[in-house]
Amino acid sequence: MDIQIRSETPDDAEAIHHVTELAFRDAPHTDHTEQFIVKALRESGVLAVSLVAVDDGKIIGHVAVSPVSISDGAAGWYGLGPISVLPRYQGKGVGSRLMEKALSDIEAGGASGCVVLGDPGYYGRFGFKVVEGLVLSGVPPEYFQAVSFGAGFAQGEVSYHEAFSAQD
Which structural domain, as residue segments, surrounds residue 131? Predict the structure, then answer.
């Protein structure tokens, strides 16, 4: 497997939709709207980072990063996700490569930090941790984590872009 990580192009939208749909098809704890969220983020012009993983000319993974708002007014914070890898490529390092590149890109761009909603066991490997006082309403606190690229963490309630409400 010779995986290449690159930025999304306009021609990638349909393949990204397909990969995202398949990646979450059998996943627990989802309402299966991730592909619609990515589309809505793209159409709203708020995808700060949108990377694809390509193997032999075929898109096999994708990660989206978009700005978030924090009630304390902290600037430069982003939300990672959705991150998607075709089921047959999962567990082979594709998601890790997408994560590392996405985090590197936003840090290089001057981001203060990044939040994610997901499995602490997985995201902890990339420096994410639960931060007391940084919350996402309505989710178990142990699944909402952050990584800081600067001196500290924002405090307050995090709000994702309205595209995260997309249903189709």
Answer: 3-165
Predicted TM-score of the model (pTM): 0.94
Helices (H) and strands (E) in the chain, counts: 4, 9
Residue 29 burial by Cβ neighbours in a 10 Å radius (0-12, 13-18, 19+): exposed
Q: Which residue has the tokens 């995201």?
A: 123
Which are the contacts of 14, defined by CB distance < 8 A and separation ≥ 6?
none
The model's pLDDT over 74-123, given as tens digits with 9 standing for 90+, comes to 999 999 999 999 999 999 999 999 999 999 999 999 999 999 999 999 99
Task: Find the length of the chain.
Answer: 168
Q: Which helix (H) or strand (E) holds 70?
A: strand 69-70
Encode pLDDT of 58-73 as tens digits: 999 999 999 999 999 9
Half-sphere exposure of 164 (CA within 13 A, CB side): 16
Question: Residue 105 sits in a domain of what CATH number?
Answer: 3.40.630.30
CA distance 41 to 82: 11
